[in-house]
Amino acid sequence: MQRGLMWFRHDLRIHDNPALANLASSCDQLTCVFVIDPNWYRADHFQSKHLGAPREAFLWQSLTELHRALDAMGQKLIIRTGKPLEVVANLCMDHAFDLIGVTDHPGTRERHQVDMLVERFPQRVVVSDAHTLFTQHQLPFDLPDIPATFTQFRKAVEKRELMPRLPLPVPESLPAPITAIKSDPAPLSDRRIAPYQGGEIAGRAQLNHYLWDTHRIQRYKETRNGLDGWDFSSRLSAWLANGSLSVRWVAAELDRYERNVEKNESTYWLYFELLWREYFQWMLYHYGARFFAFKGIANKRPLTTFYAEAFMAWREGTTPFPIVNAAMRQLKQTGWLSNRSRQLVASCLIHELGVDWRYGAAYFEQQLIDFDVAANYGNWQYLAGVGADPRGSRRFNLDKQAAQYDPDGTFVKTWVGEHESSELK
Ligand SMILES: Cc1cc2nc3c(=O)[nH]c(=O)nc-3n(C[C@H](O)[C@H](O)[C@H](O)COP(=O)(O)OP(=O)(O)OC[C@H]3O[C@@H](n4cnc5c(N)ncnc54)[C@H](O)[C@@H]3O)c2cc1C
After folding, report:
1. How far, in Å, CA of 1 to CA of 3, rounded?
2. Residue 146 backbone class (left: φ over 0; alpha: ψ -120 to 50; beta: rest)
3. CB of 371 closer than 6 A to ligand 1?
4. How far is CA 394 from CA 6, 105, 272, 275, in A?
5. Per the database record, which ranges form the Photolyase/cryptochrome alpha/beta domain (predicted)?
6. How far apart, in whole angstroms, are the C-alpha atoms of residue 75 and residue 78?
7. From residue 125, how far is each of 6, 415, 421 by CA, in Å?
8. Over 50: is that where the pLDDT of 122 sits?
């Protein structure tokens, strides 16, 4: 009688989940667990928490959906609260699991968890890889030789015509649950964060919407610098970040779309952006803690410090820059920002207000519905001039950007209000 424990972390799905598929085929009994860490709620992290309200709600919906999907297969999702490693280790000791399934993730905490688990339960941990497009084995370089710039990375991958591994189907069946293991009462809020809806079904529906239903994908390259609205970019990031959508599934659907409907510069550009995501994941695997260091992976000291007032003005959207204020208020209210707005507000914090980039990155971590540790810290370092950027640092001319991307001021009026925006000028 083999007993398996599936520890869900950033892979909240039953499709393309090799760890789950592995346990499904090798165990007679299975427990599926997700652990809520009370540390996510402590504001000890550059004055921000790890988990803010928008992502908490999205996470709760994703877990509810995962539970429903498991339930339809005779399983259930056990939710526990506590230090994740301790919770999982205690479950293993109490219930003598033979196999523990987990999906690898480049986050330093996540990797430490797996390392500790392997140390405590040797031979029992099955670590699968499904958070990235490619496996480490497929990469055309050894990790320590990861290219210093995105362009070199992209060219290396494209030259070899690397194909993401095809996504796995949902397992045909799952082993029976261990009925004695129960959930703790979950402390998460179920606040609605429209128009987002967490979970695997909604994630796939969004992919279908962007590709097959509206064909917006065909104009992605022209529209992707939009500031507001739903359809100017794919909006897949939140589902990709918590793994309710597999990036390999997205790549496979994109490929199918290109074969069956249209292949153009825009369809390529979505893949190009997925490669940016990919690059930052592997950079984080390689650099570990240096991804979070003030001097970054470039080991260069930025000319910034910490000014409490400037940081507060930025957070609250009361800086002298209306476009930044509009974006920061949108972020506070909705948990989301377009890529262009993220670049502008980050440039403002670093280059206009002179604040240490890590405060901005930590606030994004708290606030973003799609927070992904590699994409977030990779992009912040890049803009602060301490990351993977041959040009040093990126300073945007905020007036010029506002004139180009918000020519009639609609974005500012929407989020700051007409009266207040003229007062701030
Ligand atoms: C300062 C800063 C912080 C950011 N923090 C995050 C974050 O925490 N989580 C996150 O997913 N993205 C982050 N991004 C990248 C990007 O802004 C978002 O992925 C994108 O805006 C999400 O919207 P979308 O899904 O419609 O993207 P689309 O434009 O449709 O792109 C498709 C997918 O490609 C990936 N992607 C796109 N642009 C980037 C990029 N520059 N870097 C890495 N991946 C990319 C995302 O997975 C995205 O869902 C950040 C960018 C900046 C400048």
Report:
1. 7
2. beta
3. yes
4. 42, 28, 20, 20
5. 2-136
6. 10
7. 10, 48, 56
8. yes
